[in-house]
Task: inverse folding
């Protein structure tokens, strides 16, 4: 009887740089997506309670100077960088395309970029990291 290993071996990356870039942008994109979500919810509440149009409500701009402008803008630019870095990581690791697409889309759903970052971290190891799967097998 043969046993089937349900979890594939992690992909070994020669340098830590691409993985670190991805992890930093995943967290930054996730934080700003949460801010953007809060901004939209506050904007919706303000527009309905004050009887003004949705686009006229200040949202987080009520408490953060200029927040109605820079929160969505920063999230947009961070998401673009996140997509570029995620595709770069895919080109270096050749993770499954469908799962990479889900990782990219995770930057559009609140809290999911944190989940995707954990998934990527579990499936990609760095060769020169102490205690990584690659260095454990080469220790003599």
Result:
């Amino acid at each position: 009887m043969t046993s089937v290993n349900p979890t594939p071996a992690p992909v070994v990356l020669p340098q830590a740089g691409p993985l670190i870039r991805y992890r930093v942008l995943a967290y930054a994109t996730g934080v700003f997506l949460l801010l953007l979500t809060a901004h939209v919810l506050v904007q919706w509440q303000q527009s309905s309670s004050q009887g003004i149009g949705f686009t006229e409500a200040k949202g987080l701009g009520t408490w953060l100077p200029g927040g109605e402008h820079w929160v969505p803008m920063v999230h947009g630019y961070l998401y673009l960088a996140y997509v570029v870095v995620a595709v770069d990581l895919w080109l270096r690791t050749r993770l499954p395309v469908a799962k990479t697409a889900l990782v990219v889309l995770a930057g559009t759903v609140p809290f999911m970029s944190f989940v995707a970052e954990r998934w990527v971290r579990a499936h990609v190891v760095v060769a020169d990291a102490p205690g990584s799967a690659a260095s454990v097998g080469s220790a003599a």
